[in-house]
Description:
This protein folds into 3 domains: 2-64, no CATH class; 75-269, Rossmann fold; 286-488, Serine Threonine Protein Phosphatase 5, Tetratricopeptide repeat, CATH 1.25.40. Helices cover 45% and strands 11% of the residues. It is built from 19 helices and 10 strands. The protein has helices at 2-10, 19-32, 39-46, 54-64, 75-92, 111-123, 141-149, 162-168, 180-183, 222-235, 335-340, 344-357, 362-374, 378-391, 395-407, 411-424, 429-441, 445-459, 476-488; strands spanning 99-105, 131-138, 151-152, 169-172, 175-178, 186-190, 208-213, 236-244, 258-262, 265-269. The strands form 2 sheets. It has a 7-stranded mixed sheet. A 3-stranded antiparallel sheet has the order 3-5-4. Strand 1 (99-105), helix 6 (111-123) and strand 2 form a beta-alpha-beta unit. It is globular. The chain starts with a helix and ends with a helix.
Amino acid sequence: xxxxxxxxxxxxxxxxxxxxxxxxxxxxxxxxxxxxxxxxxxxxxxxxxxxxxxxxxxxxxxxxxxxxxxxxxxxxxxxxxxxxxxxxxxxxxxxxxxxxxxxxxxxxxxxxxxxxxxxxxxxxxxxxxxxxxxxxxxxxxxxxxxxxxxxxxxxxxxxxxxxxxxxxxxxxxxxxxxxxxxxxxxxxxxxxxxxxxxxxxxxxxxxxxxxxxxxxxxxxxxxxxxxxxxxxxxxxxxxxxxxxxxxxxxxxxxxxxxxxxxxxxxxxxxxxxxxxxxxxxxxxxxxxxxxxxxxxxxxxxxxxxxxxxxxxxxxxxxxxxxxxxxxxxxxxxxxxxxxxxxxxxxxxxxxxxxxxxxxxxxxxxxxxxxxxxxxxxxxxxxxxxxxxxxxxxxxxxxxxxxxxxxxxxxxxxxxxxxxxxxxxxxxxxxxxxxxxxxxxxxxxxxxxxxxxxxxxxxxxxxxxxxxxxxxxxxxxxxxxxxxxxxxxxx
Length: 490
């Protein structure tokens, strides 16, 4: 099978529901290499992975990996670097010329390592005295080529403070070009984490202080994740840190590390004096956290409020109190029970803990996004929802993501997600309501009316007393009334 060949060659995991995506990627690679676009020919080509040349492997890597990223993504890991790791290293390395070694493994088009370089520039007042290494590696030559250019569209800055963008990038037409001084701080090179040898002095992957490997491991097979995690451990200096995405936490894979909590995030530290991690069960019924074969329909997603009608709730509990909740007696409670009881901070902790065992558990990803949203942490909610739809691009989950983007006033991004939903499900009523609202906010009343009329057409198929899924329990009659009122109010 093609999936097994790719698994052996690149370590990438393609389950049955992604076979079509796999076939398209292989066909695209074959076209780049001027090979025949024929299923039998492709199968024969990949049947003996050991015979493929480096050039062929790189072509496959480019077309089978996802390069979606942006600057200053997942801020909890960045705060760990600037607020804890750097101060500690500064104190340890006083006197002689201090040094710092960081590796961005799976750097994609460069936004992550460049974000790290900018943060170091902002954080270290005596940065010119430091010997800094920022190694950035990826399996996609196309992504690395873009990274080396250092030129980005506005989409890469969707979570970037305007002050930093204006300080370190030059605006030219419809793109932004990175400051050459920041570009010089990062060294980009090709690396296949599942095939290449590391740690090694030859490829500069030894004695690292910090390794960032975020939204990469989730695409590997379990065996390759374990092997890669072990090699990361050996690549770190004593007390070095491994920073993964919060949806990639898994105590089984990272059992050699000690586990640390910072800024509501969970991270892994190399520390040979500490006892290795032990996997804990957080549910009475272990089957409750088994990864679903496919994303559930989750009728519970009907709880999602429509931002145009009601704002997402804000928590009264301060965010800094979250880590203290780890000792709570409700530690082993079911996240759904915690969510329904309004205990969102505890639900966040339980969901993160669940994801450390089952990184693609749909319920836990979903609850994490909703709980972050309900406590007003919209950036974290947006990231969690994005991680969810990356694994499960289902209309209900995409709708949650669009809701959060709308609440953050990211209308253009929300509209793209809603269009994707309507492509998947042309009769998704809540999406038409959203699109109508966005068009109205952005000054396009004619388009707004078009979407609202489509919503009314769909509502006409329902009785006035029927509850509409995805609208927080609203009836068809109430929604019709609200749409008519919106039209009257211009």
